[in-house]
Design goal:
By secondary structure, the chain is α+β, with helices and mostly antiparallel strands. Helix content is 24%, strand content 30%. Strands 3-2-4-1-10-9-11 form a 7-stranded antiparallel beta sheet. This is Glutamine amidotransferase type-2 domain-containing protein.
Length: 298
């Protein structure tokens, strides 16, 4: 299981360092879900960043070994920051192409592509065959998922892609044409929680406990912590307009029916969860199961 975490900043927060401290704390806590590789993506429209406003830093090993304090100034300015800790199940941990966040191009020239993080395991070969996806640059199933999502717009287009996945999946991704908005999705099993602090910053993480720990060790207080149910898609962030500053909020939401394979149910899905959090989440599961030939059944 991999670890996802990130933040969409509120322009009304008095001290950006508070949300940055939470982000780094979430990264350290996410090591419990993977130490094969780690990475962060800092997104925004200011000059001086690589990849036209998206800086990705990643490497082998723990988040604490990949994170660098000299990134703090850029993190404080980033409207969106996302992170990932990897537990390698497919693709060598020695290859940078297999680490996340991943930059994936969209088909055609209508979009600059996406930056994404994934926790889970799906059948990449089946996706490539069904949707004629481009040749991979690495060996992960994550890349196939992002290729499927790249260029999909609107809740119906996104959820149609999410319903095509069979396996464990939680996702956070950003379309590089809209870097102030984050797409969050929980398909089958892989957990994803969302929190809002008292300054209206929005966060996500693979374990709701991490928010409670971060609250103890940072200056941030959370107004809301919510575990997303399976089959939930959200687009959160701000809609930029000249002369206007908005607080981050839910811009779009949709539900869909996720699909898991019989072997996907594994208690390691809830690595690091408290017994109470695990029990509450397991009581809400609503995915379909595939038959041996991968045809979904209710």
């Amino acid at each position: 299981m991999c670890g996802l975490f990130g933040v969409v900043r509120s322009p009304f927060a008095g001290d950006p360092g508070r949300a940055s401290d939470v982000f780094v704390t979430l990264g350290a806590l996410a090591e419990e879900r993977g130490t094969d590789a780690a990475g962060v993506a800092l997104l925004g429209g200011w000059p001086g960043l690589a990849h036209d406003g998206c800086r990705v830093v990643k490497g082998r090993g723990r988040f604490s070994g990949v994170w660098r304090t000299e990134l703090l100034a850029e993190l404080d300015r980033a409207p969106v920051a996302m992170g990932h800790t990897r537990w390698a199940t497919k693709g060598s941990p020695a290859e940078a192409a297999n680490a996340s966040p991943m930059l994936v191009a969209a088909p055609g020239a209508r979009s600059a592509g996406i930056v994404g993080t994934h926790n889970g395991d799906v059948d990449a070969g089946a996706l490539r065959e069904r949707f004629a996806l481009p040749a991979p640059s690495g060996g992960t199933d994550s890349e196939a998922v992002f290729q499927l999502l790249a260029g999909r717009h609107g809740p119906s287009g996104v959820t149609a892609a999410l319903e095509a996945l069979a396996g464990r999946t939680a996702l956070a991704w950003v379309e590089r044409d809209a870097p102030s908005q984050v797409h969050l999705a929980r398909a089958a099993l892989s957990p994803l929680a969302v929190a809002v602090d008292c300054e209206q910053n929005i966060y996500w993480a693979s374990n709701p406990r991490w928010f409670r720990v971060a609250q103890r060790y940072t200056r941030v207080r959370f107004a809301t912590i919510v575990m997303l149910r399976e089959g939930t898609y959200l687009r959160v962030g701000t809609e930029r307009a000249p002369g206007r500053r908005d607080r981050p909020r839910v811009l779009a939401a949709a539900s869909f029916v996720p699909t898991a394979r019989p072997a996907d149910r594994d208690d390691r899905v809830w690595t690091g969860f408290t017994d109470a959090d695990r029990s509450r989440d397991q009581a809400t599961l609503r995915h379909r199961l595939t038959t041996p030939d991968l045809a979904p059944v209710a």
